[in-house]
Amino acid sequence: MSSFQLRHAAALDWLCQLGDQSVDRLLTSLCRAASQSQLRCHNGRSRQNTWYQLFPSQSISGVFAQLYRVMKPDTLGLILCEQGDLPSLIPMAQAAGFKIGPTRIWQQTNKPARLLILLQLYKGKPVPSWRQQPQLHSLPADKSQALPEALVAELLQDLDAGLVIDPFMQDHSIALGALHQGLRFTGAHRDGNQLAPIRQHLLKHTNATELMRQKPPSPTPQHGQLALLP
Questions:
Q1: Range with the lowest mean pLDDT among 28-32, 63-67, 149-153?
Q2: Residue 36 — very low, low, confident or very high, per pLDDT cuts 50/70/90?
Q3: Which InterPro entries does UniProt cross-reference here (predicted)?
Q4: Does residue 53 contact residue 11 with C-beta atoms inside 8 Å?
Q5: Which among 129, 78, 71, 84 is positioned nearest to 100, based on CA atoms?
Q6: pLDDT tens digit string along 132-147?
Q7: Looking at the chain, which runs of residues are DSSP E strands?
Q8: Alpha-carbon distance 213 to 210, whole Å?
């Protein structure tokens, strides 16, 4: 039976808690998070940079270093992003040790049409089938979720078993697709209020088991309040 685990945490903090070489597939999307962010790059004269937006006070390159650490040898990672993000993402991924694969594109067939890039990261020696993957995924976008079910199924179809992670969860789409294929899933979301509806969706639409639900933090006494001792 497939299983899942959800965490309220920033991606870098959460990745630091995962075990070495414990992940079989990275699949995540940065597109919506980048468009919603209002933060700017530390260098005011430079162009807006998605990764500075996501980590205004953390080490950006540290995310890729942690991803490289937690992924098993000879495994694939996929990051859905805008084309303009590639000049920032690729050098950091290569510095962490990843090999960059052939460009894959998700062509959104809705009107207006839109092209998004699937950045391929490989740890170790790429298998021959890596370059035989379809380079164009022509599918309509789904307004009800970040990634359409058909796209997630295509990106995970070569996995028979294993653990899929999403460090930048936006909704249930990647988790649901992994569970439907009998895989294990774990992911982190920066907004703890979003975890309850995601959890309900996964439990309603799959037979998966949730593992070790995160305990909410204890309330901190405010000034002038007495803390009750257990």
A1: 28-32
A2: very low
A3: SAM-dependent_MTases_sf
A4: no
A5: 78
A6: 778 999 999 998 899 9
A7: 3-8, 23-29, 71-81, 99-100, 104-108, 114-123, 136-139, 163-166, 184-189, 209-210
A8: 7
Residue showing tokens 């895989």: 183
Domain 3-210: which CATH class? Answer: alpha beta
Would you list the domain boundaries of the chain? 3-210
What does the DSSP assignment read for 113-143? PEEEEEEEEEESSPPGGGGGS-SEEEE---T
User: DSSP label at 190?
Assistant: S
For 146, phi and psi rounded to 5 degrees?
A: -65, -45
| DSSP 3-state of 76 | strand
Q: What is the reported pLDDT for 197? A: 96
CA-CA distance, 208 to 4, in Å (whole number)?
Answer: 7
Instruction: Report DSSP state, residue 158.
Output: T
- Alpha-carbon distances, residue 198 vs 7, 11, 150, 171, 175 (angstroms): 11, 17, 19, 6, 9
* pLDDT over 70 percentage in the chain: 78
- What is the DSSP code (8-state) at residue 24? E
Q: Are the C-beta atoms of 187 and 167 separated by less than 8 Å?
A: yes
